[in-house]
Amino acid sequence: MVFLHWRGQWAGKSGFVFIQVTWNAGRTIEVKKAFYKAVAEGISTKAGIRIQDVFISLIDVAREDWSFGNGEINYAPKD
Fold it and tell me: Which residue, 16, 45, 46, 58, is most buried by CB atoms nearer than 10 A?
């Protein structure tokens, strides 16, 4: 799940994007670097925003930190 937050102005710049992604922990630095690059290039190309103005934040969480409804844990460890 990705939420895009668009702001018209920041520090004298116009048109930047802040992306915050919550995902399961455990990905390598190499995977994160590739993800940053792919997202930044894709947003820049498709939205016409300078790649320098694409900010990305990753939040690593444990698998058991997810609930997709019904008040139930979806990735509970097997007992």
Answer: 16
Provide CB contacts within 8 A for 10, sequence distance 6+.
Answer: 16
pLDDT, one tens digit per residue, over 55-77 is: 999 999 998 898 889 998 888 77
| CA angle 47–48–54, rounded 5-degree value | 75
What is the percent of the chain with per-residue pLDDT over 70, rounded to a whole number?
A: 78
Do residues 41 and 33 make contact, with C-beta atoms less than 8 angstroms apart?
Answer: no
Total-model pTM = 0.72
Cα 59 from Cα 61, distance rounded (Å)? 6
The DSSP result for 15-79, as a single string, is EEEEEEEEEES---HHHHHHHHHHHHHHHHHHH---GGGEEEEEEEE-GGG---STT--SSPPP-
User: What are 6's strand-pairing partners?
Assistant: 17
